[in-house]
Design goal:
The protein has about 220 residues and is α/β, with parallel strands linked by helices. The chain has a single domain (about 5-190, about 200-210), classed as 3-Layer(aba) Sandwich (Rossmann fold). It contains seven helices and six strands, in the order βααβαβαααβαββ. The protein has helices at about 15, 30-45, 60-70, 100-105, 110-115, 130-150, 160-170, and strands at about 5-10, 55, 80, 155, 185-190, 200-205. A six-stranded mixed beta sheet has the order 3-2-4-1-5-6. α2 (about 30-45) packs across α3 (about 60-70) and α6 packs across α7 (about 160-170). The longest helix has 21 residues, at about 130-150. It is globular, with a radius of gyration of 16 Å. The termini are far apart. The model is unreliable at about 210-215 (pLDDT under 50).
Length: about 220
Amino acid sequence: MDRILVLVRHGQSDWNFKNLFTGWKDPLLTELGVEQAHAAAKSLKERGIGFDRAFTSTLTRAQHTLKLILEDFGAPDLPTTVNLALNERDYGDLSGLDKEYARKKWGDEQVYLWRRSYDVPPPGGESLRDTVARVLPYYLQSILPAVLRGERVVVAAHGNSLRSLVMALDGLTPQTVPDVEIDTGIPIIYRLNADSTVASKEVVIPHLAEPEATRPPD
């Protein structure tokens, strides 16, 4: 039994490119974002990975990324579940603001806490702890059982919803999870044991992935 779980952050969105806080806003993929989705599919196919079931968020950039991946696999009608639990962290009042403008207005330290700390939410938004509180129960109730049944599962979601899953899978703490970066269009392949622990993990770097320096982490 394979017990394969693949996590993939959506390709670059227009607001990633513009360096804006996005959260639950719904910008589209850029041309690069589309290329990243195709590259992710190619890299997974090269490793012999296939899928039986998919999960994604209610936001267009994640759904479009998943659609492109499944089309490249020749499986556009793969059973897919859409759920708000997998949405990006809600950035509240920061949504739509330029990140550099935010740093100038509130200071580097405050913006860093809003973006990277575990339990400090931005005004009107969610902390990573809040995001974990909605993502993890959904994973345990809906995604994990499918994986443990032997279904090969792909989850197309967002930087912080996927950080929440990686936190659980990798056994990270509130002190270590802020250092986790999940880049756009980079698949993470987990193989699980029968007891749901991680047997192996592979971070796949597709050939068309854009260099880290030009992509904001969230």
